[in-house]
Amino acid sequence: MFNTARKVLLALLFAGLAGPLFAADLPEPVVEEAPPPAVYEQPAEVGGWYIRGDIDYHKSTVRGIDYMTYTVDPCNCTVTPGSQSFDFGKLKGGFSLGAGVGYKINDHFRTDLTADYWFKSNFNGQTTGTAGGSPVIVTSAESSKMSALLLLANAYADLGTYHGITPYVGAGIGGAHVKWDTVYDPTPGATETNPGRSSWRFAYALMAGASYCLTDKIILDAGYRFSHIQGGRMFDWNVGSSGPGFDRGINTHEVRGGLRYQFGGNNGCAAPVVAYQPEPEPIYTK
Description:
Blueprint: H1 2-25, E1 30-33, E2 39-41, E3 48-62, E4 65-69, E5 82-85, E6 88-91, E7 94-106, E8 109-130, E9 137-158, E10 165-180, E11 183-184, E12 193-194, E13 198-213, E14 218-235, E15 245-262, E16 273-276, E17 282-285
Antiparallel strand pairs: 1-17, 2-16, 3-7, 3-15, 4-5, 4-15, 6-8, 7-8, 8-9, 9-10, 10-13, 11-12, 13-14, 14-15
Domain Outer membrane protein beta-barrel: 45-263
Keywords: Signal
Pfam families: OMP_b-brl (PF13505)
């Protein structure tokens, strides 16, 4: 019996000593740190005030020019005028500068007020008629210059952003101050002149283009604009000449480029920023 108890005691002692020895030979678990998910702080809600500046090249078309023929001052209302039309009238291309202030309401809608000054464009035309009661048909060249200030209230629909480019369409309504210089016959020796007129007229515009974020504040804008200016008085009557004259309206095609600067709110260009990076949680692997 004592032999049996002694054997059991020896076995227990051996197990107690051998356990730590075997455990020392086992590999320890390796701790790997998984990258934690970043927590992003979204920029402020899209919207805010902006200013803009534009430059363009435009080509205008006069839809037609009518004029009256008087033998005396047209203020004498007992005289019945006869209406005639220019054979043709053409405006050459020109440049304009524009500026405006607007507000971006959300990702898809913005509005602005713009003012564009059209520098003078050369005008060339021709009339055919009789002179001094003579039955002889006379052809006369006509020259002048036209400039305008176009004021518009505009609304735009941004159609989504694709690879950093945001296409848009828009429309505007407002008025234009059109100024015609003196209309004269450029033929050497000719003395016929008519004083040009200036007046405010109704105008509207249709736009399409695209914008691109240069920075989180500055946006490049390029596009096309069609504008129509209502017809009005072009020139007055003058002694020894016909008149007054009226253009039937001016259609203009513009290629535009410019910059928008958002000085309030968010223009949609700002990227999310990391607001908080949590401590990594350990992951144990065998």
